[in-house]
Input
Amino acid sequence: MKFVYGALFLFIVLSFSGCSSKDTLKPEETLLLETKDSNNLSDELAEFSDEFEAKEIYDPLNGYNRWMTNFNDGAYEYVLKPVANGYKIVLHVEIRESIGKFFNN
Output
């Protein structure tokens, strides 16, 4: 039972330790989808181009966010996923459902 509590604690700590997106698009990397009427689409978008200019936003925590995202992805892939698979293999379905109902209550 200590294993389950340890895994739950680890999951909670890692899930709240960093929240950022892994890949952010730079303004020059954004792509328009090609359609059959690409000329008409370009003409329609040209009217609104001045309203939707991408501006670079200064993010002082950019390095930390990238590091924490990589850490979270690694922890999920190499720790949490195997623990969850082991939990699924070791415990019977009724026990897992009971634990799930306990935490949902």
